[in-house]
Amino acid sequence: MIRILIVDDHPAVRAGLVAVLRSEPGLVPVGAAAEEQEGWRLAQRARPDLVLLDLHLPGGNSLALCRRIKALDPTTKVLIYSAFAHDELSVAATLAGADGMLDKTEPMLELFDGIRRVHRGEQLLAPVTPERLQDVQQRVPADDWPIVAMLLDGTSDADVAATLGVRQEELEGRIERLLARLAPTAARSRA
Predict the structure, then answer these.
(1) DSSP string across 55-79
(2) 103 and 141: one domain?
(3) Rounded Cα gap, residues 153 and 174, in angstroms
(4) Do 43 and 113 belong to one domain?
(5) Which residues have CB under 8 Å from 111's CB, separation 6+?
(6) 167 is in which domain, residue-wise?
(7) Is residue 27 classed as helix, strand or coil in its secondary structure?
(8) pLDDT tens digits, residue range 122-173?
(9) Is residue 104 very low, low, confident or very high in pLDDT (cuts 50, 70, 90)?
(10) Which of 57, 48, 119 is nearest to 82 (CA)?
(11) Which of 41, 46, 51, 47 shows the shortest CA–CA distance to 7?
């Protein structure tokens, strides 16, 4: 059984996902949230196995929420499920700690398969290519580039903070701003 939390701002999408997940053997929705803070509260309370996370949440930063969920419990899988789930976001999703990304236009069977694969530990993220890194480098301030490099290399937040000589809280703020810069343009303009 895979316990799933849904975080999506569209009521019809949330209701539809709850219904289809209930119909699929082994998949159990344990909550649904419309925005970042509600999603965070439910993640803390329900302790799901997997979070289906939309990239666009009004007034919030889904990528930062992904990082907080992974910090709360690294075994919780996060599958970004969004109309903006394109390969261009592979670096941002990796930095946020996401385990996978699926486009909402994929058939439901692909969603079910993706949930099971991510739950088993597979990564469903496009590889971080030099072209993607170049795009990110153009969108990130030069003083934050070392953060990107160290996080992509798997360096812990504590080690990044120590290397940069900053407090953990300052690093978290910088990472949240970095993730907001890397969010999809359409999602940023709607937020």
Answers:
(1) S--TTS-HHHHHHHHHHH-TTSEEE
(2) no
(3) 18
(4) yes
(5) 20, 81, 102
(6) 130-190
(7) strand
(8) 999 988 888 888 888 888 999 999 999 999 998 999 999 999 999 999 999 9
(9) very high
(10) 57
(11) 51
Same domain, 145 and 77: no
List the Cα angle 29/36/20 in 5-degree steps: 25
How far apart, in whole angstroms, are the C-alpha atoms of residue 6 and residue 51? 6
Helix axes 62-72, 36-46, angle to 10 degrees: 20
The pTM assigned to this predicted structure is: 0.89
Q: What angle do CA 79, 113, 62 make, to 5 degrees?
A: 10
Report the alpha-carbon distance of residue 59 to residue 120 in Å, rounded.
32
Q: How far, in Å, CA of 14 to CA of 77, rounded?
A: 18
Give a yes or no: residue 74 inside a domain: yes
Per-residue pLDDT band for 86 (boundaries 50, 70, 90) equals confident
For 85: left if phi > 0, alpha if psi spans -120 to 50, otherwise beta; the answer is beta
- The phi-psi region of residue 59 (left if phi > 0; otherwise alpha if psi is between -120 and 50; otherwise beta) is left
